[in-house]
Design brief:
Number of domains: 3
Radius of gyration: 30 Å
Strand content: 15-25%
Largest sheet: 6 strands, antiparallel
Shape: elongated
CATH architecture of the largest domain: 2-Layer Sandwich
Order of helices and strands: HHEEHHEHHEEHHEEHEEHEEEEHHHHHEE
Helix content: 40-55%
Distance between the termini: 50 Å
CATH topology of the largest domain: Beta-Lactamase
Strand order of the largest sheet: 10-11-12-6-7-15
CATH superfamily of the largest domain: GAF domain
Number of strands: 15
Number of helices: 15
Length: 398
């Protein structure tokens, strides 16, 4: 296919390319559709999109078409950094693709002598390409590569220009997908935090800044007249603030590990019991629904000793098939009362109370009062007075 024919084919497919690009903002799998259409429109062999670290020497996420999975994995793990154009590519201006035939100091014959070609590209019949860094944001770079076989020939200046004409749309699509991914990642992190513990919590991003607050956490923090400066929680005590920041850094550093560290501290309150706080990592690995890698989060849980749970015996009765009397005993045990106290308070026989407690154990499959207490407090029957389900909402703008 000559340049004139290829231009006509490319222009015919241009509307579909643009449509596929903007579909990626809500569904990262559409990048495959775009890359496949790009390969077809440019009479090429294969294409890939790489999300890398800032140095572009580590691939964090990738999507590709017409490359075998195992071969692509070999490329990502090793051969990406043996590519003869890699170092020079890092010196070229961001925002364009460059022809490996025209725009690099490594000519075609020198390329055929490289490890990259002889140990990886040769048997895949990859002889030519265009490549470049198309987008940079924070700690990430995005590189796009399109490859051709020997028979398909090198990318001409005209064909390279056609692809580069798409790049403003590619950058906008990447920007939109990154923004959507940030929302999805934060909501996913907040969901994981809410499921882990039934406590008010603050979700902190990888910089230690507040990105979500549960409603009850917001109310507790307002009571303390704490400052939130640039989205960060600032404690009144300088020494406690120093320890808090060090603890947050340690927890966030462990978010990508299977088992991360935790940090506990107490937040003093004037004339009242302190708030007990626990900072624990939120592991994002389970969320693989975005092109952009999920950052690590930390959840700061807050326990208020003065806030007592209301236990609804009617709900206990429905959940565990208890009689009304058994449900009230289960609720009292969960509140820390012993059977003797319950019997004396209600003018009942201790034998009757213990018999009913034994029935409760049988129906709930518990063997000890501590086990029953944990079961009741974690059940839907236990709620804070006047509270609604946790309201997850965005924190201060960052």
């Amino acid at each position: 296919m000559n340049d004139r024919q290829l231009t006509q084919s490319f222009e015919a497919q241009h509307p579909r390319l643009i449509e596929s690009l903007y579909n990626t903002s809500t569904d990262h799998r559409q990048w495959n559709a775009f890359l496949l259409e790009l390969v077809q429109a440019t009479a090429s062999r294969s294409a890939r999109l790489l999300v890398t670290n800032a140095q572009a020497d580590e691939v964090l996420y990738s999507t590709k078409v017409n490359i075998d999975d195992s071969e692509h994995q070999r490329y990502v793990e090793h051969f990406v950094n043996t590519c003869p154009w890699r170092t020079e590519l890092g010196q070229k201006p961001i925002g364009s693709l460059y022809s490996t035939y025209y725009d690099f100091s490594c000519d075609q014959q020198a390329f055929y002598q490289t490890e990259f070609f002889n140990d990886w590209a040769r048997h895949l019949d990859i002889h030519h390409g265009v490549c470049g860094t198309v987008y940079k944001s924070g700690a990430h770079k995005v590189q796009m590569l399109v490859q051709r076989t020997r028979q398909q020939g090198h990318f001409s200046h005209q064909t390279t220009g056609l692809i580069n004409g798409l790049l403003p749309h590619v950058r906008q699509a990447l920007r939109l997908s990154q923004q959507q991914a940030a929302v999805n990642h934060t909501l996913h992190g907040a969901s994981l935090a809410a499921e882990a513990r039934a406590l008010p919590f603050v979700l902190l991003d990888e910089r230690g800044r507040i990105c979500h607050l549960s409603n009850r956490a917001d109310l507790l923090l307002q009571e303390q007249s704490l400052q939130i400066v640039d989205g960060e929680l600032v404690l009144n005590d300088p020494l406690l603030q120093r320890d808090y920041q060090a603890g947050i850094r340690q927890v966030l550093a462990s978010t990508q590990a299977i088992a991360g560290s935790e940090y506990a501290f107490r937040l003093p309150r004037s004339g009242r019991a302190p708030l007990d706080c626990l900072v624990t990592p939120i592991h994002p690995a389970a969320n693989a629904l975005n092109l952009w890698p999920s950052p690590g989060y930390a959840a700061l849980y807050i326990y208020d000793r003065e806030q007592h749970l209301t236990i609804n015996p009617a709900i206990l009765s429905q959940i565990f098939d208890l009689t009304d009397s058994e449900a009230r005993i289960a609720a009292d045990i969960a509140r820390g009362m012993d059977p003797g106290f319950i019997a004396e308070r209600d003018n009942r026989s201790p034998h009757t109370v213990r018999a009913q407690l034994k029935s409760v154990f049988h129906k709930t499959r518990c063997h000890r009062q501590s086990q029953l207490t944990a079961l009741v407090l974690q059940s839907p029957a236990a709620v804070l007075p006047g509270s609604a389900p946790e309201d997850l909402r965005s924190g201060p703008e960052t």
